[in-house]
Amino acid sequence: MALNGEKRYKYADPTFVKFDILVNGGSAVTLQFQRNPFHPIKRTVLVPWNDIVVMTPVVMSALMDADSSSTPSSTEACLVHDYDHMKPIVYQTWRPVSEGGCTENSAIIAETQVLQESLSIPGSDLHLVYHSSHAHGYLSTIHLQLTPTNVTSALRLVHLHIIIEGIFFVKVFEADPEIKFTYPWNKRNVYKQKVYGLTTARVFVGYEYNSCQSILWTSHSMTLKGYDMDTSELGGWNLDIHHRYNFHEGVLQKGDGTTIYFKQQPRVISTLMGTGHQRPLLCPECNGMAKEARLLAPVALTSGPDGSVYVGDFNLIRRITPNGQVYTVFRMRTTDMSTHYHITLSPTDGHLYISDPERHQILRINSLDKVEDPESNYDVVVGSGDRCLPRDRDNCGDGKPALEARLAYPKGA
Questions:
Q1: CA-CA distance, 87 to 178, in Å (whole number)?
Q2: Which residues face 289 on adjacent strands?
Q3: Residue closest to 185 by CA, chosen among 249, 142, 229
């Protein structure tokens, strides 16, 4: 954890200190705030990978043991608030699959406030396409209506908090009817870096009443569109067959204006091999189409750079080729085989290796193509077959040829 910076803000009596902290993502992070003469406070925050997380303000006090910002000051219900009537309307300009796809005519897309111009190229089926959303001045916006037409006289203030890419926007409104506000996002994070693809914005609206001791909050989340990649050097015009792929963010920008966000696509699970029925132990007819082949007890799995997948199916090591065919490259003898072994494909020599804990050896498959005798398609590269006993390191073969070494229980390779 590294401390990047500290900024101090002073409003009336309290002093607010803001920290930027760099942590490893993918788990929960516990922070402890401590300073004399205040009581220490602990906060646990879930930090995703490659994301900027904004914590709610932490209030330290010398008069209480707990963080007053995390616990309401009163548990009494606010009866003057009408949850059905007093609720904000929030929507964003970005709409999925609302732009592009049709280059035959020019159009104005009202939902996203985008102008599309299309010019056909004589003598071909190509079009020059322009989208105003690719212009530098086009901002992603959030539109809000915070109060309805009629509001109660007990309403004092309306609070608005927007958190997006580390930016914490705060605004307070007087209690007026039909409060409307548009938040324009410049497609950059809190460190002024460009944001590509899609991002999530969180909107919090709070209603403060004269007769209630706490603010009543409602939260919304929505998706906003960041920067597009520069696909044209012709003043924003682009050929409708000219596409560009942002592999960092998983975004495909097509020349007709359509944008495909692969991170937002639903995950698809398909069957690579197996019918749901078990194969016999000795299976000379097991080669063929992988989806039609049966499995006995798959215990190990690895893949190769050409797209092949290798399956350790009990006594058989089977290769699934990129075109969906499967065949056996090695068959173990059932008398001395292990029910739990590990396989890996070496990126150096391209051979498939088997770590067999019961035989105390590392095996190398000679050929990954179809062979007539799968039982003999291997060589022993490490291990004499004798077990290395615990605390007997002097007799385990360190410093000697690998074939003379004794292994205790080899696992992954």
A1: 11
A2: 325
A3: 142
- Quote the tokens at residue 364: 């190398």
Q: What CA–CA distance (Å, rounded) separates 318 from 168? A: 54
CA proximity to 178, closest of 89, 79, 92, 81: 89
332: left (phi over 0), alpha (psi -120 to 50) or beta: beta
Length of the chain: 413
Query: Using CA of residue 241, residue 246, residue 247, residue 251, what is the dihedral sign?
Result: negative
The C-alpha atoms of residue 217 and residue 204 are separated, in whole angstroms, by 7
Per-residue pLDDT tens digits of the chain, which is 413 residues long: 333 344 444 444 456 677 888 888 888 889 998 888 888 889 998 988 888 998 888 888 887 654 544 434 445 688 899 988 999 999 888 776 556 667 778 888 777 778 888 899 999 989 898 888 877 788 899 999 999 999 999 999 999 999 999 999 999 999 999 999 999 999 999 999 999 888 999 999 999 999 898 999 999 999 998 888 876 667 788 888 888 898 888 888 888 888 888 888 888 889 999 999 999 988 878 899 999 999 999 999 999 999 999 999 999 999 999 999 999 999 998 777 777 899 999 988 999 999 998 889 999 999 999 988 999 999 999 999 999 988 777 788 888 899 999 998 888 77
Please tell me the distance from the alpha carbon of residue 361 to that of residue 364, in angstroms, as a whole number: 10
The Cβ-side half-sphere exposure at 182, using a 13 Å CA radius, reads 6
Following DSSP, what letter does each residue of 234-251 receive, concatenated?
Answer: BTTEEETT--EEETTTTE
CB 209 within 8 A of CB 78: yes
Amino acid identity of residue 285, one-letter, is E
CA separation (Å) from 268 to 244, 250, 273?
A: 24, 16, 16
In the chain, what is the greatest distance between 2 CA atoms, to the nearest angstrom? 90
- Rg (the chain; Cα; Å): 32
Give the Cα-Cα-Cα angle 374, 378, 382 (nearest 5 degrees): 155
pTM of the model as a whole: 0.63
Which strands sit side by side in the sheet containing 167-174, from one edge to the other? 167-174, 155-164, 198-209, 216-225
